Amino acid sequence: MTPASQPSLTAILSALPEEQQGLLEQLHGAQKHTVAGRDFWLGKLHDQPVALGLSRIGKVSATLTAAVLIGHFGASRIVFTGVAGGLAAGVKVGDVVVAHDFIQHDLDASPLFPRYEVPLYGRSRFPCDPALTALLTLAAGRALASSSHAARPLLAGAQVHCGLIASGDRFVSSADESSRLQAALEGAGHSALAVEMEGAAVAQVCADYGVAFAAMRTISDCADDTAHIDFPTFVTAVASRYAQRIMDELLRSLPAPT
Ligand code: ADE
């Protein structure tokens, strides 16, 4: 069977190898394919055909990876697992934010188009697939609830939030920048829970192709002056565990592949 003809292929996108590692270790019948200089892993997780890909960092890289997953491998849904900086009050390190929709916080074609609007789409925000997002939210809740008695627990007291995530080609690493970014978004009527660097690009690609998209981000830092210190430690020590647990729960809850 060629990759493009695989039925019900779920693509799982991670930003960094450390975030993908746990999923790769569990993959049955793993086969590596290299397209556009990127490695993709095809195989099965919980009897579901999956493709694992790395978005790398930033919107351009993420766009290309998503387009390959859909155009070359025929993915019928994409789920993003990664980390983000917390923006909203009450979104703490170790919490999980499931995206309801995405906005590009660094997109500004004004005065030709309103700030944040994606030119020629007539919209600023790209929604995630409601059904897949509902399953992902439930999966995240189950993973966090069961974590206290697991061999390697997730962070105690972690919560699941669902809302808007802002993406842009900047690592937000000062409290000043984070407040400015939040205030500008709020001023335009957009209240974001978290900030990262890829999701809005993948959401737009999925909307263009009509492919279901859902995304979860574990909060690794508070997008403030210590963000660059918290980030690498968190990604290596914690994020991969979150991704693995939550994807386990999600894949078990998907309809049987056709
Ligand atoms: N991903 C994780 N933390 C982030 C931050 N502070 N800014 C942008 N992307 C991030």
Write a compact overview of the structure shown:
By secondary structure, this protein is an alpha/beta fold. It has six helices and ten strands; from the N terminus they run βαβββαβββαβαβαβα.
Textual characterization of the structure:
The chain contains 6 helices and 10 strands. The protein is an alpha/beta fold and 258 residues long. The chain has a single domain (3-250), classed as Rossmann fold (3-Layer(aba) Sandwich), CATH 3.40.50. A 5-stranded mixed barrel has the order 5-9-8-6-10, surrounded by 5 helices. It is globular and about 50 Å long. The relative contact order is 0.22. The mean pLDDT is 91. The protein binds adenine. Adenine is lined by residues 83-85, 171-173, 195-197, 220-221, 223, 227, 231.
Number of helices: 6
Low-confidence region ranges: none
In this entry the ligands are: adenine
Mean pLDDT comes to: 91
| Separation, N- and C-terminal Cα atoms | 14 Å
- What coarse outline follows from CA principal-axis ratios? globular
